[in-house]
Predict the 3D structure of the following.
Amino acid sequence: MRKKKKLVAIIVMLTMVVLVILGIDFYKKIIKPLDMKMANNKKIKFVADYSARDNKLVVELDNPVSGNFEYKIDGLEEGYYYISAFATYDGNCDYCFLYGRPYIIDVGGGGDYPKTSVPVKEKQQVVVRGIKVKKDGYLVFGSRMSGGDDSKLSIHSFRVNRETNQDSQYNLLLGGALSRLNYVESTGAKFYDFDGSKKDPLDIMEANGINFCRLELNNNPGKGRGDGKYYLPEGFQNQEDILKIAKRAKKHNFEIQLSFMLSDFWTYGIPEDFRKDIEGIKDEEEIVKILEKDLYEYVKDTMQKMKEQDTVPKYVSIGNEMNGGFFLPYGDSSKNMPNLARFINAGYRAVKEVSEDTKVVLHIACNADDVKWNGNGTGNWFFSLCEKNNVNYDVIGTSYYPFWAETLSVDDFTQWCNMMIRKFDKDILLMESGFNYREDTETGSRGQLSNMGYYEGKYDYSEEGQRDFMIELINGIKCVNDGRCVGSLYWDPIMVAGDGIGWSFKEYDDKVDSNVISNTTWFDFDHKALKVFAAYKYN
C-alpha cells in the first residue's frame, strides 16, 4: 500500500514538472523577441522572463533615446484582439506607449496602429484595443518611448484577449467642446502650435489625434434671455452658429456630438421661443403637449439642416447634465418624470426620423457617485427612472471631473461604467471632463476647478500634470469591459484667456464676466498648444 502511494506521488510530481516545462515551452514558442530599432544606436537593456504565470520585461534607458521593443505572438485566429498589460512608467519622456499591430514587414509602433499611453508613476492595467490579426495568425506587441535620464518602463505581465463583441475595429473617439469657437475667435484670439506658429486650432487638434467634437446648441442666447443677472453673447451657440462650426469640424474629419441644451442660458428653464407658446395657458397637460411638440420640431429642424450640409452627428444628447430634468418645473425628474419621459422621447423620435444611425445620449452629472454609494447613486437612480417610464435612448452619457468626483479616481470611473453596462446594457460616453494645467486663471482666481479631488498632490497643476491625468483617464476608458465606453469629450479646450472672453455677460452693464476655465484649456494664456495633446496623439 505504501509503495502504491509513493508511486502515485512520484507520478503526480513528474506530471507537474512536465506541465511546468510545457507551459514555459509554450510561452517561448508563441512570444518571440524581434529585432529592436533604436535611435542613435543607444543600448536598451531588457530582461524577459517567460513563465506559465507571468511575463516580465524591464527596459532601462541609460541615456535619452527613442526606441522600440517588440514581441511577435503567433497561432492566433483571424479577428480583433486586445492586450491587457500591467505596466509602470517613471521618467522624463514626452511619450511612452504600448501598441499592437499585425505582423508586417516594417517594425515600429507608428502609423495608425492601436496604441495606449502608459500612465505615469503608478503600476496600472494598460489596455490596447482594436488590434487586427490577419489570416497569418500573427500579432506584434511592443512599446515606443522617448527617454530621459533614469526613465524606466516595466511591463510586469500581459495577456492577449480575443474581442468577442466587435465585427469592426475598435475606434475610440477623443475630443472636446468647440461650441464657443466662433465667439472666442470673434474677440481677436489667435491660436499657436508648439513652435509658436499661428494656426487654425482645429489643424492643431487634428494633427494631434483629435477625431471628435462636442457642439452645445442653445436655442436663442442673448441679452434678457439669461437668468436675470447674466446672459450668453448674442449670435453665438444658436442654430446658425453651431451649423457653421459643424461644417468646419467636418473638414477636419471630426465626428460630431450635438448637445441640445434646450435653454437660452446655462440654466434648465424654458427657452424664450418655447415659453411664448405657453403664455397664458393654465392647464398643465396642454402646456406639456405644446412643449413636447416644440421640442420635436426644433430637434427635427436642426437635424435636417445638419443632414443637408452633410454634418449629421454621430451622437445627439437631449438636454445637458439633465438628471434633474429640463423645461422646469414641468420636466422635473424628481416630481414630473412622466413629463420628462415624453420630452425625451419626442427628441428621440425626431433624431431617428432624420438619421437612424445617430445614437441618442442622456447626459447626467454623475461623476461616478454610484461607486461611492454602493450602487445607489445618481446613475442607478436616474436610469432606473428612465426604465420605469419607458424612456428611449441609446447611450449613457456622464460627466467625470476629479474636482466634482472628490474622492473617486479613474479606476472608480471605470468601475462605474462597468456597473452601468451590467445593469442597463448601454454603451457609455464621457461627455465632460477637465483638469487644470495651472492653479489660477489669468485674473489670479482659482477658477471653477479649485482642487483636483483624488488627484490633489498626485499630479501637479502643470502642463505635465494635465497631460498625465488625461493619459490615465483615456487608459481607464479603454479598460471598460468590451470597449463599451465609446469616447471622451473635454470641457472646455478652446475657451482661452483673453479680453472679452468669459462664461457670461452681465445684464446691468453688458460687460463680460470672468473666464473660470482659462486654466483648464488645451492652450496656455498666450494661446500656445500645451503638452496635454500628447495624451491624445499617442492614444
Q: What stands out?
A: DSSP finds 13 helices and 22 strands in the chain. The CA atoms of residues 208 and 533 lie 6 Å apart. The chain has two domains: 29-162, 173-537.
